[in-house]
Design brief:
Length: 243
């Protein structure tokens, strides 16, 4: 009976965690003329960038709790002109830290995943993780708006340009109570683009939660010549759909 009670409590906790984002009020503050600080690992080289390249426009107050994942689905052809394929060097995410949020030290890593098309909803959905970076420790000592960059290193192969993908930022550790940084978005909200997973499944931050824009996540990439991902040479399970 004791074990059953423990299992029921654990299930309830997971359910509550999964609905945490849905239950919270979206409080936003406009970001005008942002002064952006850089934190993380510098990208040694880049040919172009993919993801959300729009200027940060809103801070979503006290949104980042930790022990969670944020993702952005993107089309590399929308912002990059690599002729054949691309290799992700680093993934960036904007975050804003208030005076009450610092000093903050947290662990995080980034990844590139495939995106799967759902014909029922007409949406591209988060798919299978295909390459993962190492865990890094980040320390923020001063309040402000930060562009946090983490590398993927050599974990990714050359990805074909004609597919949809997702960039993700994983927070390994939880932030202390009352020290929750602001998430950041642009001012162009679109469904099926910005995602958040608290451990029980992906939630659309615009459609389900009501964010005023898409999450500010992007990546530095270099062009490469031998992409994998066609029907005969699958890359991380990427499906040969909707070329």
């Amino acid at each position: 009976m004791k074990n059953l009670r423990i299992m029921l409590l654990a299930t309830l906790c997971l359910a509550l965690l999964g609905t945490q984002a849905l239950a919270r009020e979206v409080i936003v503050t406009r970001i005008d003329n942002p002064d952006i600080e850089f934190s993380g690992v510098e990208t040694p080289r880049q040919d172009c960038q993919v993801g959300n390249l729009n200027a940060p426009a809103y801070a979503i107050t006290d949104w980042v709790y930790g022990n969670e994942v944020y993702g952005l689905i993107f089309d590399p052809l929308a912002t990059c002109t690599c002729p054949l394929g691309f290799h992700v060097e680093s993934v960036h995410m904007y975050m804003q830290f208030g005076a009450e949020d610092v000093p903050a030290t947290f662990e995080a890593f980034v990844n590139l995943a495939e995106a799967d098309f759902d014909p029922d909803s007409g949406c591209w959905l988060p798919g299978t993780e295909v390459c993962v970076g190492e865990v890094y420790s980040i320390t923020i000592d001063t309040a402000g708006l930060y562009d946090i960059s983490l590398p993927l290193g050599e974990s990714c192969e050359c990805a074909a340009m004609e597919y949809m993908y997702m960039l993700s930022f994983h927070f390994v550790t939880a932030f202390p109570t009352g020290m929750n940084p602001d998430a950041v978005s642009d001012d162009i909200p679109t469904n099926c683009t910005s995602w958040n997973d608290y451990g029980t499944g992906w939630v659309d931050l615009v459609f389900d939660i009501g964010w005023p824009g898409n999450i500010s996540i992007y990546a530095d990439v270099i062009c490469c010549e031998f992409p994998v991902g066609d029907a005969d040479n699958t890359w991380g399970g990427i499906k040969n759909l909707y070329r």
